[in-house]
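Journal club prep, shared notes

We agreed each person brings one worked example of a sequence with its structure written out as tokens. Mine is Ribosomal RNA small subunit methyltransferase G. I'm keeping it raw so we can talk through how to read the token line rather than staring at a rendered picture. Sequence first:
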Amino acid sequence: MTDHPIELEVEPAIAKVLFEDRIELARAFTFDLAKYGEQLGLVGPLEYPRLWTRHIVNSVLMAPLLRPGLVGDIGSGAGLPGLVLAIARPDVNFVLIEPMERRTEWLQREVDALALTNVQVRRARAEEVHDEFTFDQLTARAVSALSKLIPITVPLVRSGGELVFLKGRSAEAEIEKASKAIRKFGLTDVRVEELGENLDTEATRVIRATVD
Ligand SMILES: C[S@@+](CC[C@H](N)C(=O)[O-])C[C@H]1O[C@@H](n2cnc3c(N)ncnc32)[C@H](O)[C@@H]1O
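Then the structure, token by token:
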């Protein structure tokens, strides 16, 4: 692989606050993402000046919502949020589920390079592994609208488990549009939460829902 001329956003101070003693791993991952991301079609060049803020910090804001157990991340792509969360939460086990071979190769290479022992990479679509995994919590970012995510993710989560989806401004509208699926798949306590509101970074939003 050829080196990419890196014009990376300077690491924001909040990164060290959020990653604590895992910051060196987060730096190594971010550096690799900047180096290979465009070449491997993982992130576009326009994202480089906001790689930390918009992608790495945005993902790690979810870390406090996770409980020790098994977490599935659907459509991990470049590793967002799954690999970032696995860096931040070594006490949680993760399965990154991603159908594209080039992306799973990238994810596995990073898992190996960072010597992460709490991550499994599975090349598949979510709906192909319903009989293979039962997660305590399931995360996703930028995969599809809530109404489409519900049927492919709920069968992967244990009763009492939780969906945690990073969403933008559309969160409430997506909940509204997914009302039929929410009823059909027995989701309760469906709500939008703001993350990072009092921190020195862009706030973000998640949809959280409990699986009956
Ligand atoms: C727009 S990318 C987002 C990647 C990453 N989550 C992020 O936030 O940058 C959507 C990803 O979801 C994956 N994907 C699409 N449909 C999927 C499915 N049914 N199950 C699992 N992954 C899926 C795609 O291959 C792609 O990597």
